[in-house]
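Encode chain A's predicted structure.
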Amino acid sequence: MTQLASLSIDLDDKWAYLRSRGDAAWESRPSYLAEVTPRIVDFLGERGLPCSVFVVGKDLTRDPGARAVERFAAAGFEIANHSQSHWPWLDTLPPEEIEREIAEAEAGIERITGVKPTGFRAPGFSWSPEVLAVLARRGYAYDSSVFPTFVGPLARAYVKLSGFRSKDASDDAPEQRFSSLSDALRSLRPHRLETPEGPLIELPVTTAPLMRSPVHFTYLSFLAQKSTAAARGYWRTAMRLCRLRGVAPTLLLHPLDFLGEEDEPQLAYFPGMRLTREAKLSLLSDTLADLARNRQVVTVAEHAKA
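Encoded structure for chain A:
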């Protein structure tokens, strides 16, 4: 029997990256969604690959975010919840603010698509028991916020060294989480969670079994900046380990995986953004073709039901 894999995109817009770096330009809410959305829809559509799109509620309040989500929904993508404001410390907020972050994005998605979302991913993988309880209470079927990797502390160090700042560049804002050491020890397989408000299915964002290093495509682009051969070899090794360990991968994309250095020079500091668009799309095309040859690719919602 063919093993499953699910594919998803966190639809983080340009303003969210600028805000995380403390760049005041974020306040004008610059966006690349009008440019990148047709590219993503066509790229995945030509390859017949289903995909879930986790969207930020604030982007639904205006164009081009609202139109982007309309286009994804019309093309058959699952539309899921990525919070209202994309605070990557969602887990530290008071319970009523957590509820509001989830509820407002949920309402925006339902307003645009006519369908209430059933899945959620916390920005910055900032899940908590309270977040999960809110999801269960609101009738969500699954969460996909756990990122089982040892790289989290390194990512936090990179953020500091790279000059990133949190929450409107405030020095006293919480740190971005990027998963914790305890997350690194969690299961890589989809599993059922019990909360005080009811059950949820958890689909962790896949990391390489045994190594617990990232497998998402931004990481592959980061490796490819040094060596494309190394990036391709790492991908093959990670997928081989998934098969040997019985892990059905949940793989993560971002809009920046479809944009090159010539598209967004302002984001050149971000991992993988020193590659050209052509180089990125070539790597992405080959890795997704390899994935589709060996696994049945589904949305995260379909994966949760399996």
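The first strand starts at residue 3 and ends at 10.
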